[in-house]
Amino acid sequence: MYYRKGLFDSYNRFPSRGSRMELTADYLNRHSRNNSSYFMNSEKTAVIEETDNLNLWKFKADFIYPYSRTLVWKFGASVQFISSDYTPTDIVENDRFETSDIPTKTFGFTPIVYASAQGRVWKIKYSAGVNWQLNRISYEDCSVGKKSTNTQWSINPTLQVMMPFGSKMNHALMLSYKRTLSDIPYTAIYIGNQLDDITIIP
To answer: What's the pLDDT tens digit per position in 73-94?
Structure first.
C-alpha cells in the first residue's frame, strides 16, 4: 500500500480596497494490493487477491472583497472529483467466508458555488450567504458492463447574527441557521477497504 499527495496553494492580494484571492489544488492517491487466505481446521478454504486504487482531486478558488468598513463580500467555487477502481483476481470462494469477485469502478463529482456577506449594523454583527451544491455518484459493475448514477443538488442558505451586550460588552447573543447537503464520503465511493469520511467545505 502506498500514498501520493500533492498540494498547491496561492494567495494574491489586489490593491483595490484590500481585495484578495486564494487558489488551492489538492491531490491524493491511495494504491493497495492485498492477498488474503482463509483457513478452517488448518485447511485453506478461500483465497482472494485484490487491487484497489483511489484518487481524489480538489480545486478551490476564494475571493474576498471589502466593499466598505462595514461590509465584506466573499464568494468562490470549488470542485471535487473522487474515483476508485477495485479489481479482484485469483479467487477461490467458500460459502463460509464473504469475498467479492466483482470488479467495479466508481466516480464522484461535487461542484460548489457560494457567496456571502459579512458586516455590522449598529452593534449587531451578521453573516448571510447561500451556496449551490451538486453531488453525482456513478457505479459500474465491470463484469457485466452495467452502470448506475445518482444525482442530488441543493441550494443552501446560511445566516448568523451576533450582538454583544453588558456594561463591558463581554457577553454576546448569537443566532445561527445553516442548511447543508451532505458531501460524498469515501465510504460511498470506495469499494475496497474503506477509509474515513472526508468532508470538504467551501
So the answer is: 999 999 999 999 988 876 665 5
The answer to whether 93 and 46 are in contact (CB under 8 A) is yes
Question: Rounded to an integer, what distance in angstroms lies between the CA atom of residue 153 and that of residue 175?
Answer: 26
- Which grid cell sits at 118? 459579512
Amino acid at 10: S
CB-based burial of residue 131 (10 Å sphere; 0-12 exposed, 13-18 middle, 19+ buried)? buried
| Global confidence as pTM | 0.75
Angstrom distances, CA of residue 155 to CA of 134, 166, 177: 9, 37, 14
Cell numbers found for residue 87:
479489481
Give residue 63's identity as a one-letter amino acid code.
F
Is residue 120 within 8 Å of 146, Cβ to Cβ? no
Whole-number Å distance between alpha carbons of 189 and 54:
9
Residue 40, φ and ψ in degrees, nearest 5: -140, 120
Give the integer Cα–Cα distance in Å for 34 and 191: 14
* Burial class for 198, CB neighbours closer than 10 Å (0-12, 13-18, 19+): middle
Neighbours of 98 (CB within 10 A): 9
